[in-house]
Amino acid sequence: MVPFERLEQITQRFEFLEAQMADGAAGADIAALAKEYSDLKPVVEQIQAYRQLLADLEEAEAMMDDPDMRELAEEELPALKEQLPEAEKALQIALLPKDAADARPAMIEIRPGTGGDEAALFAGDLLRMYQRYSEARGWKFEIIEENATELGGIKEVVGHIKGENVFARLKYESGVHRVQRVPSTESGGRIHTSAATVAVLPEAEDVDIQIDANDLRIDTMRSSGAGGQHVNTTDSAVRITHLPTGLVVTSSEKSQHRNREIAMQVLKTRLYDLERQRIDSERSADRKSQVGSGDRSERIRTYNFPQGRMTDHRINLTLYKLDQVMQGDIDEIVDALTADDQAAQLADMQG
User: Fold this and answer.
1) Between the CA of residue 12 and those of 24, 55, 87, 97, 134, what are the distances in Å?
2) Of 136, 278, 108, 288, residue with least CA distance to 202
3) Which of 42, 87, 123, 135 reaches 20 to 30 Å from 18, CA-CA?
4) Of the segments 66-70, 294-298, 323-327, which one has the largest average pLDDT value?
5) How far is CA 184 from CA 189, 194, 244, 320, 329, in A?
6) What's the pLDDT at 95?
7) Among 19-33, 36-50, 101-115, 308-322, which range has the highest average pLDDT?
8) What is the pLDDT of residue 226?
9) Are 99 and 168 in contact (CB under 8 A)?
10) Are the beta carbons of 286 and 351 closer than 8 angstroms?
11) With b meaning 16 or more CB within 10 Å and e meaning fewer, what string describes 143-180?
């Protein structure tokens, strides 16, 4: 079990932060203190609940020696003992090292895979699924770059999502999403299988990535308006190439200054993601589990429309409520993936 000294250290740190914030902590970084305080709060609540349970157990065991109280103790003890393993597990999960990126906003990139027009239509369906999910959670979903097909599908879309714990909730969505359905373009009614890839990247902060201006080539291009409606064709679209990695980012809003800002943010986020992947692969070279690794070549989920079924292959979870899932009701899947990842981390620590 967790050493008591560690629980004591965490509790003392929490009380210190509480006192600092109450005093206004002159000269301290209030935002950093508040973040650490809010990160520690749920951990300390679990510690307090666990300690309370141990105290109740001790008290009930002491009552066994008192003839007047023995009967009551015999009633209470089994129930208290039954709660102990669950309380220990909840505490261990609360103490797991947090992914530093969990609380950050995220960029989401969706692209069709195999399957032509049908894959592009499915990519559009996935975009709407994530937009609805974001809306239900009170997040702000902004489309940065969108390239649509004539049939209303998507060749590529990049979105920016802001809100609470965005990356923590969406990081398991990275990978290949497969769809099985009869395309609306198919007259014979045959079921087709096609796919789309999703990449969810935590947004980089300035402290994460320093970019040398000499490593960038910045081109401005004519922004092509939808269907040639924009007569005003100013050189507003911006393309930034990061020479060392060959990463290319474009943004084509109406304002060139805003484009440069957006493109730089997307570039930083992609570079930060590359660095996270490098560190992650070094650390987990021996770990087989794909959950949480964000491997985008891995088929993670199948959406079977004729059967109304969604299956997540990483945890063998099957739900027969595809309509609700496509409407953005994905919390059950996210919770199951989070729990599976936590269980794998606990096993790693104990192994």
Assistant:
1) 18, 19, 21, 18, 37
2) 108
3) 87
4) 323-327
5) 9, 13, 44, 22, 24
6) 76
7) 308-322
8) 47
9) yes
10) no
11) ebbeeebeeebbeebbbbbeeeebbbbbbbbbbbbbbe
Q: 154: closest CA among 120, 127, 203?
A: 120
Position 151 scores a pLDDT of: 84
| CB-CB contact of 236 with 215 (8 Å) | no
Longest dimension (CA), the chain: 93
- Per residue, what are the HEC states of the chain? CCCHHHHHHHHHHHHHHHHHHHCCCCCCCHHHHHHHHHHHHHHHHHHHHHHHHHHHHHHHHHHCCCCCCHHHHHHHHHHHHHHHHHHHHHHHHHCCCCCCCCCCCEEEEEEECCCHHHHHHHHHHHHHHHHHHHHHCCCEEEEEEEEECCCCCEEEEEEEEECCCHHHHHHHHCEEEEEEECCCCCCCCCCEEEEEEEEEEECCCCCCCCCCHHHEEEEEECCCCHHHCCCCCCCCEEEEEECCCCEEEEECCCCHHHHHHHHHHHHHHHHHHHHHHHHHHHHCCCCCCCCCCCCCCCEEEEEECCCCEEEECCCCEEECCHHHHHCCCCHHHHHHHHHHHHHHHHHHHHC
pLDDT digit string, tens, across residues 169-221 = 999 999 999 999 988 767 678 888 999 999 998 887 766 677 888 888 888 87
